[in-house]
Each structure stands twice: as C-alpha cells, then as structure tokens.
Amino acid sequence: MTAEKLRLGVNIDHVATVRNARGGDNPDPVRAALIAQAAGADGITAHLREDRRHIVDADIDGLIAALTVPLNFEMAATHEMQQIALRHKPHAVCLVPEKREERTTEGGLDVAGNDNALAAYIAPLADAGSRVSMFIAADRVQVDACRRIGAPVIELHAGAYADAWAEGDWATRDNELAKITDMTAYAVSLGIEVHVGHGLTYDSVGPIAALRQVSELNIGHFIIGEAIFRGLDPAIQEMRRCMDAARA
After folding, report:
1. Segments in the chain forming alpha helices (H)
2. Which of 47, 54, 88, 157 is catalytic?
3. How far apart are CA 226 and CA 167, in angstroms?
4. Among this protein's residues, is 47 annotated catalytic?
5. Across 9-31, average pLDDT
6. Which of 152, 98, 156, 144 is nearest to 126 (CA)?
7. What is the pLDDT of residue 107?
8. Is the pLDDT confidence value at 118 over 80?
9. Is residue 3's pLDDT more than 80?
10. d(Cα 181, Cα 213) in Å, to the nearest integer?
11. pTM of the predicted protein model
12. Catalytic residue, candidates 54, 88, 195, 198
C-alpha cells in the first residue's frame, strides 16, 4: 500500500498557548485552523489535554462547527475525553500518553502494556464513526499490539529523529529514521495506515515525506513558530512544498 498524496495535518495547539498566556480571545485557534484549511492543510489536529493548558473545550466546539477538512482530536485515554469524543464524533481520534509535568508529549503510548483496556476503550469510538489512531514509538511490539486491538491507524513519534537532526547527531538521526522506515513498512504489511508526527521542520521533514507508505504528517509547533515571521499561510505552503518535493 503506497500513499500517492501525502496529507498534511496542521496542529493549532500553540495558537491557543499564546492566547492563554494572556487570557482573552486572541489569537483564536479556530481562525488559525480556517487559515490553515485555506492554505492547503488536509486536516487540523488539536490536543485537548486534561489540564487544558492550550486547547479548551470551546475550541473543540468551534472547530467542529467551522471546519470542512477533517479534525484529528488528540486526547488521553480517559473517561472524560472519551465522552467528549463521543459527543462530537470527530473524523479521527488519536490517543496519546499524557503527563501533567511534561512540556509536550514525550513518547509513545504503551499499547502493548494496556492492550485489553485500550481495546475496550476504542470500541465505542470506532462504533461512533471516528477513525482511531494510536501515537506510538516506532517499535514492533507496539505495532503488533495496535493490530491486536484493532486500531486502523498508527502515528509514529518522530521526536527522537527530529531532536537528533536539530543537534547534528547524524548517527542517531539515521538510526531513528531506519526505525521509522522499518516500522512503517511493517505496519502497512499488517493493513495499518501510518502517520508520522512530532518535531518535524522544513529541514527534517524531507526523509520522512519521502517514505511513500506514510499517509500523513502532523506538524504544529514548528509551523506556528514560523508563522510569526512568515505568516501562517506562507509557513504552511512552504511545509507543503517541502513535503511534495520529497515525495516527488
């Protein structure tokens, strides 16, 4: 299975981070999502954390009402989040690990250590029509667990790859890229769709985008940072250009 067009999901969490630093309504994550949609984003990602440190419930309400591209609703596997997802029925639900003390999502979900509970947890979400994705490390044990619980999609955590690129640690970068490459091929052989995300930049996105079995990249923090200098529309269009050039 080869994905001809590589989809770009734009994560708008950190528009909300800036808003929440001061309070009030600006900048508006929904407005950012609509700009991203018009700029060519294939989907919008938003992570409603338990502590509501950036995206809040009203943002999800607004995104559901306003978007015409799919919403990828990132969340922890809690009862509260399950009920919110079941109420909204987003196109996709991506389960991620979550710790209060972390700055951002630090690693992949341990599906293998919680497969029975997660199988029961995702069943009603799938029944409601949401595509369920598991955010995991590029590890065969975790991929096998995702297959056991019936998850149709995985998102591979690219953080270690992206960090190694930023630090100029080429040996680690190449090792992490090899893991992502191998686990992409393995997951696709099992009938699982593969997405990749976390930490990707204009420089580091190319080798990941060149993996023709990857269907989607989810990128947020870097794009929102670049938008300060370029504007959001040009920042997204440049990421789209980098992805398309690598895929071609």
Report:
1. 13-22, 29-39, 57-66, 79-88, 115-127, 140-149, 159-167, 170-189, 205-209, 221-230, 232-247
2. 47
3. 19
4. yes
5. 96
6. 152
7. 72
8. yes
9. no
10. 9
11. 0.94
12. 198
